Amino acid sequence: MVSTCTYQFDTPVYKGAVTFPTQLFIDGEFVDPVNKGTIELINPATGKPFTRVSVGDREDIEIAAQAARKAFKEHWGLKVSGAARSKMLHKLADLVDANTDNFAALEALNVGKTFLSAKTQDIPTIGALLRYYAGWADKIQGKSVQTTPDKIGFTRHEPIGVVGAIAPWNFPLSTLIMKLAPALACGNAVVAKPSEFTPLSALFLCTLIREAGFPPGVVNIVPGYGDTAGQAIGESMIIDKVAFTGSTLTGRKIMEAAAKSNLKKISLELGGKSPSIIFDDADVDQAVKWAINGIYTNQGEVCIAGSRIYVQAGIYDDFLQKFTEGAKRLSLGDPFSPGTFQGPQISERQFERVMGYVKSGQAEGATLHLGGKRHGTEGYFIQPTVFTDCTPNMKIVQEEIFGPVAAIMKFSAEEGSLIFHVRSITVIHGVKEVIEQANNTPYGLACSVFTKDIDRAMRVASSIEAGTAWVNFSNWPDLGLPFGGFKQSGIGKDLGEDALENYTNVKAVLINIGIRI
Ligand code: NAD
Questions:
Q1: What is the largest CA-CA distance in the chain?
Q2: Is residue 297 exposed (0-12), middle (13-18) or buried (19+ Cβ within 10 Å)?
Q3: Same domain, 175 and 246
Q4: Are residues 142 and 221 in the same domain?
Q5: Residues 303, 414, 433, 447: which is the catalytic one?
Q6: pLDDT confidence tier of residue 2, bands split at 50, 70 and 90
Q7: Is-contact 209 92, C-beta < 8 A?
Q8: Ligand 1 mean position, distance from CA 16 (Å)
Q9: DSSP code, position 213
Q10: How far apart are the C-alpha atoms of 385 and 128, rounded to whole Å?
């Protein structure tokens, strides 16, 4: 049985060892799964297995949900003050910060993201998220409402109960903490399931949860496969709410499971196909910088990746040349090398999926302008890739690729017409059309607009059906602002005050102070 593992790092950017139990974390204890299941984890930079950890099944989710329900009723929920919950979240934030290098090393090893990006972005975000919601924990308030003269009415925002939190593999710990932090701040108990591909950072977190002082059963972490452990969270009659980040396909399954079980509440953060619209008057160098960041950060494995780039004709050639030069300069390689910008894709399956899109783009007539090939001889590296001459219905323009592949398209003057160049064919549309094309996918997660004209920026940003609009930058959620998709990109919001709505039930209380009839 897998119990405790040590991960040794002797790299240019980090030397050290991290030791922690790799069992399930249920009711404050590390325990073996009922069916003794394990999963082998593959290092995406080499394609070779490097460890084996426990995985839970349906029975383990049920046991964890029961522990969470008991904890919620007996020593959590409305029994603990917001101030006390805040203190624990602050303590956990401090412990995460103190282990930044350890967490960053685990994420780099397990996901293939660079150690330095994890150390400077992902892990500091986790501490910041925990502190942000620690700040809310004692400010979960209702309001008093004037009713009739003989009644007093007010609302209470009560914790829902047991929250199932399900995370994807691209930002394993930060997406999990986006659920955990507000859920705990509001007084819920949690059963969390990291992705089967990337459980290490969540397992290491368990040791800190105990140290932060959370009572047993308040946080339970059960790595497991989606179709067994994940599906069991959706179907559970004990779990009151599921907070999910992952693909739109899985989001549908969770909605269906919730409908067929106890009608649990759901919030879903799903896929995206975000457009960037770059006008002639934009600062081209800045637009290039942000567009490159928008599509190639984290190997393109980013839900908000700016994968469709529409560039106005006057700067198109300049933009394309600078974008191409910039993309060629991105260094691919060992996630633990200080100069690396882009690591490998997470898995062979994901590598094949992205390469399948490259083939489809070529087959459908787009021009493979840059990249499109495997990098190196081992691991799952894909060159930064650019397609031009794309038409609106191509799969590479419509579907989420979740890899380092950009589709760049050209349009004409704002008040004139939009031009798609398709080899020798030029399709001309009005400016309304570029917005129509930007909106022409099932997704609506994010968008960005580049222009120095504030009126135009406002006009375009408000016309795009997306949960986030960036002006003159991209790919930058802010902890204080709601984050989540329109259309098939999701239901509900993570981040900001709005996320708290996912984790409370609002109760109306009416007091009769008049004469009884
Ligand atoms: P995925 O949907 O395959 O898996 C996500 C999680 O769901 C995993 O933990 C998986 O085990 C679990 N799961 C799978 N089947 C399940 C089921 N039937 N019931 C319950 N849980 C199940 O997604 P992924 O491949 O891990 O992640 C990539 C996707 O996540 C992309 O589509 C990306 O856009 C999306 N994503 C969205 C956001 C956002 O905030 N909108 C952020 C990151 C990733």
A1: 84
A2: buried
A3: yes
A4: yes
A5: 303
A6: low
A7: yes
A8: 31
A9: T
A10: 33
Is 303 annotated in the active site? Answer: yes
pLDDT band at 432, cuts 50/70/90?
Answer: confident
Atom 11 in ligand 1: which residue has the minimum CA distance? 226
Residue nearest to atom 13 of ligand 1 (CA): 226
Rounded Cα distance between 120 and 18, Å, is: 19
CATH number, position 435: 3.40.309.10
Residue 77 sits in a domain of what CATH number?
A: 3.40.605.10
Q: Measured in angstroms, how far is the CA atom of residue 504 from the centroid of ligand 1?
A: 24
Domain annotation covers residue 257: yes
pLDDT (mean) for 304-316: 95
| Catalytic residue selected from 269, 301, 414, 433 | 269
Q: Are residues 66 and 113 in the same domain?
A: yes
Q: Output the DSSP codes for 20-69.
A: EE-SEEETTEEE--TT--EEEEEETTTTEEEEEEE-B-HHHHHHHHHHHH
Indicate the pLDDT class of residue 514, thresholds 50, 70 and 90. Answer: confident
Domain assignment of residue 99, yes or no:
yes
Same domain for 252 and 352, yes or no, is no
Paired tokens of 246: 């992952």
Mean pLDDT score across all residues of the chain: 95
Give residue 353's domain range.
Answer: 275-479
Residue range 129-145: mean pLDDT, rounded: 97
Is-catalytic flag, 348? no
Mutate which of 245, 405, 475 for ligand 1? The one with the most ligand atoms within 8 Å of its CB, which is 245
Tokens 């780099």, residue located: 108
Task: Give the Cα separation of 339 and 138 in Å (integer).
Answer: 43
User: Ligand 1 site: residues with CB under 6 angstroms?
Assistant: 166-170, 175, 193, 195-196, 226-227, 230-231, 233-234, 245-247, 250, 253-254, 269-272, 303, 400, 402, 445, 485, 490
Do 5 and 20 contact (CB within 8 A), yes or no?
Answer: yes
Atom 40 of ligand 1: nearest residue by CA position? 269
Number of folded domains in the chain? 2
Clarify whether residues 412 and 371 are in a common domain: yes
Residue 489 falls within a domain, yes or no? no
> Within this chain, do residues 343 and 209 fall inside the same structural domain, yes or no?
no
Do 337 and 223 sit in the same domain of this protein? no
CA 102 / ligand 1 centre spacing (Å): 25
pTM above 0.70, yes or no: yes
Residue 30 lies in a domain: no
Tell me the backbone φ, ψ of residue 153, rounded to 5 degrees: -120, 140
Ligand 1 centroid distance, CA of 80 (Å): 32
* Same domain as 289, residue 232: no
